[in-house]
Description:
Elements: H1 4-9, H2 12-30, H3 34-44, H4 50-53, H5 60-69, H6 97-103, H7 108-119, H8 121-135, E1 144-148, H9 171-185, E2 189-193, E3 220-223, H10 225-235, H11 238-242, E4 246-249, H12 256-259, H13 261-267, E5 283-285, E6 294-295, H14 305-314, E7 319-323, H15 334-343, E8 345-348, E9 365-366, H16 372-381, E10 384-387, H17 396-402, E11 406-416, E12 433-435, H18 438-444, E13 449-452, H19 457-469, H20 482-495, E14 510-515, H21 519-525, E15 529-530, H22 535-538, H23 541-546, E16 553-557, E17 564-566, E18 571-575, E19 591-597
Parallel strand pairs: 1-2, 1-3, 3-4, 4-5, 5-6, 7-8, 7-10, 8-9, 10-11, 11-13, 16-18
Antiparallel strand pairs: 11-12, 14-19, 15-19, 17-18, 17-19
Amino acid sequence: MFSTQKILRAKPRGLKLLLNKILYTRLVHALPVSSIFVQWMRARWTSDPCYAFYGVDGSDCSFLVYLSEVEWFCPPLAWRNQSSPPTQYAAFRTDLSVLLDQVGAGKESLSFMKRRIRRLAQQWAMAANRLDATLEQRWRDQKKILVHVGFLTEESGDVFSPKVLKGGPLGEMVQWADILTALHVLGHNLKISMSVKELFLGVPPGRGSCPLTGPLPFDLIYTDYHGMQQMKQHMGLSLKKHKCHIRVIDTFGTEPAYNHEEYATLHGYRTNWGYWNLNARQYMTMFPHTPDNSFMGFVSEELNETEKRSIQQNKVNNMAVVYGKEASMWKGKEGFLQILHRYMEVHGTVYYETQRPPEVPAFVKNHGLLPQHELQQLLRKAKLFIGFGFPYEGPAPLEAIANGCIFLQPKFHPPHSSLNHEFFRGKPTSREVSSQHPYAEQYIGNPHVMTVDYNNSLEFDSAIREIMRTKVEPYLPYEYTCEGMLERVHAYIQNQDFCALEPPFVPANFSRQLSGQSCVEACHSEGFICEPAHFRFINNKEALRGLKVQCEVVDSEVNHILPAFSEVRRECGLQQEPLLFSCAGHSPKYRRLCPCRDFRRGQVALCRDCL
């Protein structure tokens, strides 16, 4: 019917049509029902641009491919290669020029991020070489990753960019710059989006004639809460299908009770920022608040041995730098600043345009807002870096400690939370913050960090005198080094799969039963970390019996503190909704069952054997 000579004589376009006709003839004879749909497609394929989006070009062959692989009206075509394309190896990169081009320009926020990427380039390169040696060139799949920075888009208002040069918060931009760099250095294929117009997610254009079931062109998507809302508007119902690929960069964290939309609505946990019904570990935080979320972090600049010796030689024992770039932070602080001034020369870095801000006392030497490298030099001379209680949990205290400063911060009585403090109201967490920087207090501590009651002048005075007597070496936790962040992000990318029906096994050693505590506190008190992936192993009657828990009734409920039991009522409860497994929940009425695990030295996000 179709001779070889006829095929060979055909021009390229004619050859394509001829081959399509051969395939169509063979396939339609094998699948008679297909001919009806093919006739329909012939008449309709130009009616909506979504068909062309899926590769329909007017040929019968493209109709059959569409009908079998997009609409599924026809069986799979035997001649189509249904296997997944081979994965590529993710080779470490030390050249950041391509990344810098991708970040773009035009906003001060992007300029700030690019300056940071350049400044840390050598440290990233050395860290990549060290981790490559540690992994012994183990195979790593290269992922196609979309990074959509929603809070910097014009569509979200981009309130951060205009404040970069006026003392505004930079923590989010620090973290995003480091995330982009880590993903690039690890060898993955990145697309960076800073606008909804650049947001290409495989959603067909047009009037909706095609189903929203097209393939997602990315293996992973990193975004934030603003980006999630934009993606929902852009993707519609297909967001639900693809949300297991999403990672949400979330500064303060989202607890399971706030993440589960129906539960949050019924029990008073609904806020403007939660309720996405993700696996709680898809939220990635700046500090390791709760293992319900994944700790993403950021990096601080590391010092070499020569720089450390130089710092020790040049420290000014009576020099303090205040953590507060905005004048409003200084209101009402003169009382304890006067005490500090008795012992130390006080320096500030408060932004101003023409006149010195009146909130800053006259005895303070104000340098104005400093570029990062000049701030580093100031911190390398200072003995003390002192916090005012706000901002909460920023990068600056870690940078000061890494430059040999002691960080002094206020203790909060009672702890700040969404119940008693405006800043946390509306955030999807019930976490109680006991100081300005809980990570520095709990994971670093004395002698690098001192947490005192600023309202007690005797306690404050005593702390200043102790600081002047104390010598410290520059210190940076491993998890905030470039190598630590690369190690952590590598482990997440290679091991976290929230699309799988069963999560990968994470070694956990035991379960604990403690009263009135969250599992975060219970495991931490024993030197371990709560492992939310292992609630499923203890959420059953057999586990309760193994712990010798005497229960008269075992109920399965939807409650974020379960599994747990009450000794008074001799009742046990099991968790019915896996999305509500929570390390963070606690209740005075129940003793919780807590799965705990070990962790790598200096890397709380990973167990000892999880690299």
